[in-house]
Amino acid sequence: MKIKEGFIMAEMKTLIKIKPKDYKAGDVVKIDFMAMHPMESGMRKDKDTGAIIPAHYINEVSFSFNDKLVTKMVTWESLSVNPVLTISFKVPSAGTLNVLAKDNKGQSVESTVAITPKG
Amino acid sequence: MERRSFLKSFGAVAACATLLPSIVSAADEAKKVTGPNEMNIETAISAITGGKAVTPSSKVSLSAPEIAENGAVVPIKVTVTSAMTDKEYVKAIHVFATKNNNVRCANVYLTPANGEASFGTRIKLGGTQDVLAIAEMSDGTFLSGKQNVKVTIGGCG
């Protein structure tokens, strides 16, 4: 896969999915966080020049609900390209879920999703 | 042939013979690419546990495909049986690919707000190897679960 030069994390596409779609307060739901990130391991060579492509990967992801930390992850280059991270979450009430992802080049991206339990 | 010139040429050959192996080994080493965070499994585990024993347990279930056709995308899922209350919960789940250049995949720090101790992702595997999950419980014990994954095409390099 050819990665375009100068990947900017702030422009990275992210997606947060909640499964199942309908849930009540007190239910345990699955939260998928997807990010379109190259996740370079630092071991791959450029096919044209033979130079090693420097490592570039997401190294920290934190999930927080209403500004309270739920899960913090330290991730490494062994995650696949465009990683998907799934956690469980017990919905206490309505609120906002915030996911902050950082990479090893100091860039970060924040995405939020509204938690709206039904019933 | 005069003695002087013979010694000269002999010396050159001897020098070549001694130099050659070192050149070959240097070239071999240049071919071997090491990642920026290279770490083996023993070092990685002791860094997490601090020398404490890790017990294999059926409480930690790691599901991964037995045969992965493509090592670049191997879906894994770790579930740890726990009540996830304030008193008793899973502090962290650590996932390792035991034969990758950097064995560490993800360290997931959980809280009771998770409700269930589970973590899923997709990882890269450089070859056929064991995937190991270590769960750090709130009482300070370490439980582990692992599964072997056969990889037909590697995901690194």
Mean of residue pLDDT values of chain A: 89
Q: Please tell me what the overall shape of chain A is.
A: elongated
Overall radius of gyration of chain A: 16 Å
CATH class of chain A: Mainly Beta
How would you name the CATH homologous superfamily of the largest domain in chain B? SoxY domain
Percent helix of chain B, as a range, is 10-25%
Name of the top-level CATH class of the largest domain in chain B: Mainly Beta
Termini separation of chain A: 46 Å
Number of helices of chain B: 2
What would you call the quaternary organization?
heterodimer
- Using DSSP, what is the number of strands of chain B? 9
CATH topology of chain A: Immunoglobulin-like
Commentary on this structure:
The complex is a heterodimer of chains A (119) and B (157). Chain A is built from no helices and seven strands. The mean pLDDT of chain A is 89. Chain A has 119 residues and is an all-beta fold. Chain A has a four-stranded antiparallel sheet, with no helix packed on it. A three-stranded antiparallel sheet of chain A has the order 1-2-5, with no helix packed on it. The radius of gyration of chain A is 16 Å and the shape is elongated. Chain A has one domain (11-115): Sandwich (Immunoglobulin-like). By secondary structure, chain B is of the alpha+beta class. Chain B has two helices and nine strands; from the N terminus they run H-H-E-E-E-E-E-E-E-E-E. Chain B has helices spanning 3-31, 41-49; strands spanning 54-56, 60-63, 67-68, 74-80, 90-97, 104-109, 117-123, 129-137, 142-151. The longest helix of chain B has 29 residues, at 3-31. Chain B is elongated, with a radius of gyration of 24 Å. At the A-B interface, strand 4 and strand 5 of A face strand 6 and strand 7 of B.
